[in-house]
Amino acid sequence: MAKEMKHSSMYLEQADLEGYENSGIHKNLDDDGRAKRTGTWVTASAHIITAVIGSGVLSLAWAIAQLGWVAGPAILMAFSFITFFTSTLLADSYRSPDPVTGKRNYTYTDAVRANLGGRKVLLCGLAQYVNLVGVTIGYTITASISMVAVKRSNCFHKHGHENKCHISNYPYMIIFAGIQIILSQIPNFHKLSWLSILAAVMSFAYSSIGLGLSIAKVAGGGAARTSLTGVTVGVDVTAAQKVWKAFQAIGDIAFAYAYSTVLIEIQDTVKSSPPENKAMKKASFVGILTTTLFYVLCGCVGYAAFGNDAPGNFLTGFGFYEPFWLIDFANVCIAVHLIGAYQVFCQPIFSFVERSCNQRWPENKFITREHDINIPFYGVYYLNSFRLVWRTLYVIVTAVVAMIFPFFNDFLGLIGAAAFWPLTVYFPIEMYIARTKMPKFSFTWTWLKILSLACLVVSLVAAAGSVEGLMNSLKTYKPFQSDQ
């Protein structure tokens, strides 16, 4: 058994601590017997930027168009402050009971178990993993839309902007899934730093291109119609549509800041000196500050460029047609970024399932055995049959679901609404209250509860708007055509 587990990504989790303390290997192991973590606030920032600056940035011009010049930027800034505040609370939950010297919690669910316990552990696990699955489905949709946009951009350039240029998303979802099947064999989060850094560079690239094209459009004259309150009732939308779209826009902005689902897992890659919580708070500050700057610029300048007619995705929705080669490059960058982002969000799912199966069936050779494979220019890769089969099936299932629900904006809003309150606000606040043994009805306890309640209301209205949008999309959806 030990021989079969030797090279497994889960082997060190079960290391005999007494043995490691009395051996010469302890220098290469952390205090929990695992391989010494080497991550820093820089690599953690790259993971955060990869997770946060995602496809959501491209819908922010549309979101601000629904809310207007006053409410749009105000809600954007409010979400950034709330996300940073609660991320600092969550960073302190990585170790329990002491945030610096306590026992490590490897996952979000472990942190809730250590600080809250009871039914809340099950509720957290359900919320986290459903959200992670939803994000991977959403990224499959968005990546395929970006791949299709490259073909459509060339089609428009060749045949004119009036041509329909309808292209099916399905083949590109299959291509994306094929790439993910290969990348999913990366054993764990600790091996993802290079992919996250590449993805972060790509996100800066396409965000900068979108921003630059928006600035050029504004500078070129022909100012778009904008207003303090966004789309105009009776001109752009009906009164009911105004309400629903505003709700959906709030969900889109919530999605744009969603990374709490993987925060603990990212923190588990950071070395212990300086303390992980201190490094993670710094990484969260840098990551959220950077993304907020991009969000405000892309959202506000995008709204100035397109006005109340801003498309749901101003690169793949063809707010711009020329220069077509630059649009193509930007969409390639989106696809490459989402390839990396998909892995950031699915690794916690992989780790949870594999750890659970390993604990339940420790003698099953299909689950535990590693096969040595020599790969040229890489070295020895340890192939696990269970990992290969189950991760491949997961990618296939998410791709199939993405083919059934290929809607961009509505899906983003629903994911953001579903994850924002429980994972970004409720659990970090409840764990902080429990950890500090805060007296009920004290000033701090009261305003934290008010903040949590307010964010619950926001999540509910955003979910309502997204469900309404999905229902409308289902009514008008035509298969085998790119609807973006």
Automatic annotation (TrEMBL):
Primary localization: membrane
Record keywords: Amino-acid transport, Auxin signaling pathway, Cell membrane, Membrane, Symport, Transmembrane, Transmembrane helix, Transport
Keyword Cell inner membrane listed: no
Segments forming domain Amino acid transporter transmembrane: 37-470
Keyword Transport listed: yes
A single Gene Ontology CC term: membrane
Transmembrane feature ranges: 41-62, 69-91, 129-150, 170-186, 192-216, 283-304, 324-345, 388-408, 414-434, 446-467
Any Pfam family matching the protein: Aa_trans
Membrane-topology descriptor: Multi-pass membrane protein
GO biological process: amino acid transmembrane transport; auxin-activated signaling pathway
Molecular function as annotated in GO: amino acid transmembrane transporter activity; symporter activity
Cellular compartment(s): Cell membrane; Endomembrane system
Function: Carrier protein involved in proton-driven auxin influx. Mediates the formation of auxin gradient from developing leaves (site of auxin biosynthesis) to tips by contributing to the loading of auxin in vascular tissues and facilitating acropetal (base to tip) auxin transport within inner tissues of the root apex, and basipetal (tip to base) auxin transport within outer tissues of the root apex. May be involved in lateral roots and nodules formation.
PANTHER family in UniProt: OS05G0424000 PROTEIN-RELATED (PTHR48017)
Similarity comment: family membership: Belongs to the amino acid/polyamine transporter 2 family. Amino acid/auxin permease (AAAP) (TC 2.A.18.1) subfamily. Belongs to the amino acid/polyamine transporter 2 family. Amino acid/auxin permease (AAAP) (TC 2.A.18.2) subfamily.
Protein name (record): Amino acid transporter transmembrane domain-containing protein
